[in-house]
Amino acid sequence: MITSKELKNKFIEFFKKKDHQEIDFSPLIPENDPTVLFTTAGMHPLVPFLLGQEHPLGKKIVGNQICIRTTDIEEVGDKTHFTFFEMLGNWSLGDYFKKQAIEYAFEFLTNKEFGLGLLKEKLAFTCFSGKEKIPKDQDAFDFWKEIGVNEKRIAFIEDNWWGPVGNTGPCGPDSEIFYWTSKEEVPETFDPEDDRWVEIWNLVFMEHNKKQDGELEPLNQKNIDTGFGVERVTAILNNQDDVFFTEKLNSILRFVEKLSENPINQANLSSYKIIVDHIRTSTFILGDDRAIIPSNVDQGYVLRRLIRRAIRHGTMLGINTSFVSKVSEKIIENYKEEFPHIQKNKTFILEQLTKEENRFKETIVKGLSVFYKVIEYKEEISAKNAFLLYQSYGFPIEMIVEIAKENNKQVDVDGFYKEYEIHKKLSRQGAEKKFKGGLSDHSENTKKLHTATHILNQALREIISSDIKQKGSNITSERLRFDFNFSRKLTPEELKKIEARANEVINKDMIIEKEMMPLKEALESGAQSEFGARYPEKVWVYTIGDFTKEICTGPHVQRTSELGYFKIVKEQSVAAGVRRIKAVLE
Ligand code: SER
Fold this sequence. Notes:
By secondary structure, the chain is α+β, with helices and mostly antiparallel strands. It folds into three domains: 4-244, Bira Bifunctional Protein, Domain 2 (BirA Bifunctional Protein, domain 2, 2-Layer Sandwich), CATH 3.30.930.10; 247-423; 444-585, Threonyl-trna Synthetase, Chain A, domain 2 (Threonyl-tRNA Synthetase, Chain A, domain 2, 2-Layer Sandwich), CATH 3.30.980.10. The chain is 39% helix and 22% strand. The protein has 18 helices and 18 strands. The chain has helices at residues 4-17, 47-50, 98-110, 138-146, 230-237, 247-260, 269-287, 298-316, 324-335, 340-344, 346-377, 383-393, 397-406, 413-423, 428-435, 444-463, 492-507, 519-524; strands spanning 21-23, 60-68, 84-93, 123-128, 154-157, 161-162, 169-180, 197-210, 216-229, 380-381, 410-411, 470-475, 480-485, 512-518, 538-544, 548-551, 566-575, 578-585. The strands form four sheets. Strands 1, 2, 3, 4, 5, 6, 7, 8 and 9 form a nine-stranded mixed beta sheet that branches. Strands 12-13-18-17 form a four-stranded antiparallel beta sheet, covered by helices on one side. Helix 7 (269-287) packs antiparallel against helix 8 and helix 12 packs across helix 14. The radius of gyration is 25 Å and the shape is globular. The termini are far apart. The model is unreliable at 425-440 (pLDDT under 50). The site of serine has 10 residues, from strand 8 and strand 9.
């Protein structure tokens, strides 16, 4: 028996012995990352370094990242998928490349002393088959063969390409490693379609950068980005064919089983898994220091959708009492040692879950009975009915589609979106587009707005209160959004003063400079940091003339005169004691 914690230690120690430096995980809600709702892979927080910026800890990195991928939501319930998971990775930022990455991976998997001691006969590999202008990855195939892999266990696949997550950024061909999980004999020839082969590790050879026009250009440096599924491998090492039977998750499943008094069986197991998965993801979203709450936009919408889906499955299992926060408490118990931030934010997490459960519980029973009536009498769920279920009974549209599908009915989804656009109640763009995740957009305008964010941050401290600290930031190429701690609405006069101060700084044509230094020194020198953010031991500090100094990974423009005219378009409350400013550059 090996625990997930032991596995993580093994991985990290292995790569540390190979001169990698360990990084702490980044928050689930990306810091200063404009275009994503969640961190979906360990490489996200590393994008600036994959693009060539020097990493404070060097060129070889190892770490464990908590990730959310809501694109996999439909898959949850099977034996391998989650919406939240832990992913170990090793990264080379312009240091070693394909051959070395393959050798490290093979050694870690098969070596009995330093690695996992898996049988090489149970491993199989995929390589990129080539597509359009990009050639087949013969090198990867050759390196696997050289290391002793039987070529019948290597398949070429067109899909073996990773990134960019958004429209632009680092990407490249990848090579995936599979493990034979069945008790049956391992077939000689690898068939990637056979789901007894489970993917355990992805090695990405990041040597391309996708530009805005869709073309690829070579990156200045060749990088390695790998992702190794913690729960999947923990299951494999313990001869479990289902990730939900690993130690932590299994005890949560059993906990939910007790609440329902409805024993787990083959028919209801997927509902149990959905509950455990969704409440775990919700616990970690709420546990992020950014204090996201359930709502109808962005991360808040994903959170709402997950909580409500878990509640519906609870109803299907006959759980009639409030259960979401109880399950969350159990989750916090199981994960708090490795993720103390969820223990720290426990009161907030449980409060929010209870509130959301109460809100949905008020309407779900009535809503479901209306729903089943519609299903009984209509061929299709019309836009109007879907909207009624959404607006009056709180059913997320995805849930409406799901229930309809279970009953072999269609939903007029396009009509639904037209309806709500009219009502302007839900931002599909915000929620849906960004579900897929995306990379930090490094366009000129985004960089300008990033620099403007630092200026706004300092102007607020000068004009409103020196206690102000950043509590979140989100930048698109059109606007910046900045959250900070303050307990009342700003007056129009105050907003004018902030604008004027920002434009004064811009017009002074100050120079933006960056310097790397130990975190302690940065903080002592008075560099601003974000409230609740976790930083590595060495950080980049950006200064704007003598106006402001802030810890940040960038990128920024070089001179403030590049920014144009700074204008605040909105100031509002987002949570108790947290205000939000939206601003543009004209
Ligand atoms: N970015 C790749 C993945 O998520 C490897 O880490 O699979």
